[in-house]
Design a protein that fits this description.
The protein is of the alpha/beta class. The protein is elongated.
């Protein structure tokens, strides 16, 4: 059998994509990497068979970047696995099959005690299979007319239980307070007391000529969610809000509809995959990278300060990745006027402050809360 341990210079970077892992093993880093590389490509890590020819291994086996003897001397560390691009039909199988390849069977291998995906590098021909954002941060700034400072967004609160008319009145106060973006909370979706077909025409009629993006909560199973996107567009909507639990691949499917509609990726629930304290997880920045490739326009990137204590470096790194992919990072979960300057000092101006509780909970009401946030952005020093 051919050796799968290679120097980076020996690997054709056009035929492989590279995944950086942190692994901990009960045996050795060499053994853990072997189990992962073979188990996630050609077969059982411990059993060879008559069908596994040298040609098959050369074309379809993962490769391990590193010196086999050195890897055999340690039980943990960073390791890069090269996956053959030919193993995935990128156009149709895309993100779902990618995730099966890079974070699948190793969860069932006893000697792999921890497995963290730290980064992925794709050759250009793989990136070209993904459309990227329809509008992205550039198009968002063009639509809203905000060019030289962070955007101001808000979230409909209460999350549910409101009627279309109450929602409309809330939207009016937010717009009067100076917001550029509004999203419905993911808890809303399409209930009988506030159906999409009633609330979207009401809101969009009011928003005509106002250059405000309104993302409608459309959470549903695939393929029905694609019908929801089309419904929102046909009702005059200009944005949709899609949560992580709808499935990563659904963002690619929505983008491929190629409708002139903004797509917001909401992260609630992602810690099932991205929590750094879990033995098996994927770095949040990797999810942000994939989201950018799939074509979202906004993504809830995390928060600095606020009530939800995201790791600060994770949020800063996510904003950087999203800026590189022309995706607008939304910072939310406790954003308020007192943190606007601090956040901007740490990430720059290319983000959106998405504020719910501190706008609607203002002592003088929603409009006053939005005005207070607007003032904090307009008076930034940078």
């Amino acid at each position: 059998m051919v050796s799968i341990f290679k120097k980076l210079s020996q690997i054709n970077s056009q035929k492989y994509f590279f995944v950086n892992y942190y692994l901990e093993s009960s045996s050795s880093l060499r053994d853990a990497a072997w189990q992962l590389a073979i188990g996630q490509s050609v077969g059982n890590p411990n059993v060879r068979n008559q069908w596994e020819t040298d040609e098959l291994f050369n074309n379809h086996s993962c490769l391990i970047v590193g010196d086999e003897d050195k890897l055999n001397q340690v039980k943990s560390g960073l390791i890069t696995i090269a996956f053959p691009t030919i193993n995935i039909n990128w156009k149709t199988d895309g993100i779902a099959h990618l995730m099966v390849n890079i974070m699948g069977g190793q969860l069932d291998i006893d000697i792999i005690q921890k497995c963290h995906i730290k980064a992925i590098q794709f050759p250009q021909h793989v990136k070209d299979q993904f459309l990227g954002p329809k509008f992205g941060a550039t198009g968002i700034r063009e639509y809203t007319g905000v060019t030289n400072k962070p955007l101001l967004g808000s979230i409909i609160k209460p999350k549910t239980g409101i009627t279309p008319q109450v929602l409309l009145e809330m939207v009016k106060e937010l717009v009067e307070g100076g917001v550029n973006f509004i999203k419905e909370d993911e808890i809303l979706s399409d209930p009988s007391f506030c159906p999409i077909e009633e609330r979207v025409p009401l809101v969009m009629e009011y928003l005509k000529g106002k250059n405000v993006i309104y993302c409608v909560s459309i959470h549903s199973d695939y393929p029905y969610i694609l019908d929801r996107v089309k419904q929102v567009y046909e009702l005059g909507g200009n944005g949709v809000h899609v949560n992580f639990w709808c499935g990563l691949g659904v963002y690619k499917a929505i983008r491929e509809l190629d409708l002139p509609i903004f797509v917001h990726f909401q992260k609630s629930g992602d810690k099932i995959l991205t929590n750094r304290n879990h033995d098996f997880h994927i770095d949040w920045t990797v999810i942000c990278q994939l989201a950018g490739m799939m074509g979202v326009d906004f993504i809830h990137a995390g928060m600095i300060g606020g009530y939800y204590k995201y790791p600060e470096d994770e949020t800063i790194d996510a904003v950087k990745i999203l800026n590189e992919h022309n995706v607008m990072p939304a910072l939310s979960c406790g954003f308020n006027p007192s943190v606007t300057q601090e956040v901007t000092d740490k990430v720059g101006i290319d983000y959106m402050a998405n504020v719910g509780g501190h706008i609607h909970g203002h002592p003088n009401g929603t409009r006053a809360g939005a005005l207070a946030m607007r003032e904090s952005i307009d008076n930034l020093n940078f």
